[in-house]
Specification:
By secondary structure, this protein is mainly α. It is 50% helix and 2% strand. The protein has 14 helices and 2 strands. It is found in: Secreted.
Length: 312
């Protein structure tokens, strides 16, 4: 009987061993480090910065798009450039065509230009995933008047999976309340401070009317009445895909990455419910006040939060 049990145990162990041999190991996580391209492509970061500078000189809004692109990329599949993948016969609905990204996402041409220049100097070396994060870093540098300046580790791997459904599942919409926002960031390893700090990027860029139409058409809303009145004049009553104009997110300094966003939040002059939600708890409201009035604090925090997000 003991011998029979031993045979069964040996068979089970053999089956487990066979399964272990046939199950592929999980993909290795990229080991990010500073100066990743120092030897393989020394001019890599300079090339990306030049492409971003040229784009922002022509259109500052592209810089806002690049920062937004980095966020949208990292929150889906991690920071792997999956947001860049186009539809194919095998996958008609990648992230790029999802509601949060299409048609509002800008900056793809800038990434293409930077990548084309990199391929001329260092073919097949620099990942698109690193280009996306470098470009966001450089956009923040130029739009902040050089106040947001940080080094970024590199070595990200390009992803091959891109699904519209995951963009819809993981990208927090502008309608989210505070608890929903906190949970969305927590899933990515980001905390409440990161949430408040990264929300400050809404000090640049534009938004489609459909993203905040409920805040100006359905009272009650805590939006400043004067701002709501102006927006009603710029937005149709019922925006749709064919008629959905855009407005600047920050009416005071629309093309400058600064802490004006937090002053706007305190004055109830922000577009999204997710912006207004920052005043719905004592903890986040205190952080809004600090970022609004402590000189230089937000810029330093934003740099750290961007590095942290770029490691997702």
């Amino acid at each position: 009987m003991a011998r029979f049990g031993a045979l069964i145990l040996a068979a089970l162990l053999g089956a487990v061993a066979a399964q272990a041999q046939t199950t592929p190991p999980p993909a290795p996580r990229p080991q990010l480090r500073f100066g990743f391209y120092k030897h393989s492509c020394p001019p890599a970061e300079v090339i990306v910065r030049d492409a971003v500078r040229n784009a922002i000189i022509a259109n500052p809004g592209l810089g806002a798009g690049l920062i937004r692109m980095a966020f949208h990329d990292c929150f889906v599949q991690g920071c792997d450039a999956s947001i860049l993948l186009d539809p194919t016969p095998a996958n008609l609905r990648p992230e790029k065509v999802s509601g949060p990204n299409f048609p509002s996402m800008r900056g793809f041409d800038v990434i293409d230009a930077a990548k084309a220049a990199l391929e001329r100097f260092c073919p097949g070396v620099v990942s698109c995933a690193d280009v996306v994060q470098f470009a966001a870093r450089d956009a923040a540098f130029f739009l902040s008047g050089f106040r947001v300046d940080y080094k970024l580790p590199a070595g990200r791997l390009d992803g091959r999976v891109s699904l519209e459904s995951e963009a819809l599942a993981f990208l927090p919409p502008p309608s989210f309340n505070l608890s929903e926002l906190v949970d969305s960031f927590k899933v990515k390893g980001l905390d409440i401070d990161d949430l408040v700090v990264l929300s400050g990027s809404h000090t640049i860029g534009r938004s489609h009317c459909s993203s905040f139409s409920d805040r100006i058409s359905m009272p009650p809303s805590d939006m400043d009445p004067g701002m709501a009145f102006v927006l009603k004049g710029e937005c149709p009553a019922n925006p749709n895909f064919t008629k959905d104009p855009t407005v600047v997110q920050d009416f005071v300094t629309p093309d400058k990455l600064d802490n004006q966003y937090y002053k706007n939040v305190l004055k109830h002059k922000v577009l999204f419910n997710s912006d207004a939600a920052l005043l719905t708890s004592t903890q986040t409201a205190r952080k809004v006040v600090e970022n609004a009035f402590v000189r230089g604090r937000w810029e330093k925090k934003f740099a750290k939060a961007m590095v942290k997000m770029a490691a997702v």
